[in-house]
TrEMBL record:
Keywords from the named record: Flavoprotein, FMN, Oxidoreductase
All copies of domain FMN hydroxy acid dehydrogenase, residue ranges: 1-363
Cofactor: FMN
Lineage: superkingdom: Bacteria
Name of the protein described by the UniProt record: FMN hydroxy acid dehydrogenase domain-containing protein
Coiled coil residues, start to end: none
Residues the entry annotates as binding glyoxylate: 131, 166, 261
Binding-site list for FMN: 80-82, 129, 157, 234, 256, 258, 289-293, 312-313
Entry-linked Pfam families: FMN_dh
Alphabetical list of InterPro entries matching this protein: Aldolase_TIM, Alpha-hydoxy_acid_DH_FMN, FMN-dep_DH, FMN_HAD, FMN_hydac_DH_AS
Active site: 258
Family of this protein: Belongs to the FMN-dependent alpha-hydroxy acid dehydrogenase family.
Amino acid sequence: MTAGAALDLAELARAAKAVIPAAVWDFVEGGSGAELSLGANRSALDSLALVPRVLRDVSAPTAGCALLGAQAEMPVAIAPMAYQRLLHPDGELAVARAAKLAGIPFTVPMLSSVAVEQVASSGADLWFQLYWLRDRGKTAELLARAQAAGCRAVVLTVDVPRMGRRLRDLRNSFALPGEVGAAHFAPDQAVAAQRRKDGASAVADHTSQAFDPSLSWPDLEWLRGRTSLPLVLKGVLDPRDALRASQSGVDALVVSNHGGRQLDGALPAIDALPAVREAVGETCEVLLDSGIRSGVDVLRAIARGARGVLLGRPVLHGLALGGAEGVGRTLALLRAEIDDALALAGCRDVHEAAGLRLAKSPAQRREGQ
């Protein structure tokens, strides 16, 4: 099946699995540990039933909204995902081009396989992801490069003091091929992710060398003092952390368990969302990441308190099936599903979707959950 023939994101995923090398598929799809959180993200979303409204004149629903102060064509941004040239030679540049055409933001990953300056040539609305590095000077350098390239926000991922133990990668002794590397790092540093060792993940080895597990609240002050860009924290689940972040001047939070790739057994992001939203009120924007696979999922997130969502793995499926065109198909399918879900839920726009009621689905009630 081609990307163009797929009718939903599940069909896209099945088609992508048929063309992606097995070890790369495991790198993309795998979670940490027993992959409990990976599965729980999906189960938690499926447990939520929307309660639609009627007699609302939904002849022309609109999915547009503001994300971090700029208009987006739908309440979706593309999540940061490392080493996208594993899926297609154009990698992050192809995804950014598709995001530009779809009218949504693209988050340039710090572990991008294409440099931010080249990604910026797409003309897309770019956010830039940071991990906290042991080399503070390197962190400052990347921040300056992102700003100079025109990135409009900084997304600090805060749930990776170390990379989660991803058993699929360990079993595969996963390492990057020589033609794919961390474009923002010097070759002598990036090569660590390409050194294959039996029973080990070279990608995890590289991050353990580069990432600083001592990241703490005072470091936010250092970062805040070096940029006027909106600051987003990605990887927040506890409302206590959310409240402290909002009090520290953070502009937005991404409620996320890293797609089930960090602490196995962590709370599903959609379940953490209401308490985080309540803790911060309107002091900062709240987005949801982890497990989004349909337009209905987007409405579930919005009804539960999110301004919008970050879309991850389905983007990589589209990328593998056809570069920018394949990603464009992914985003077009999601947009069609959002428009359909808005109309069928009786919502003329995303703002009205925020007022929808949610209930436990009948299937979940039968199972006593």
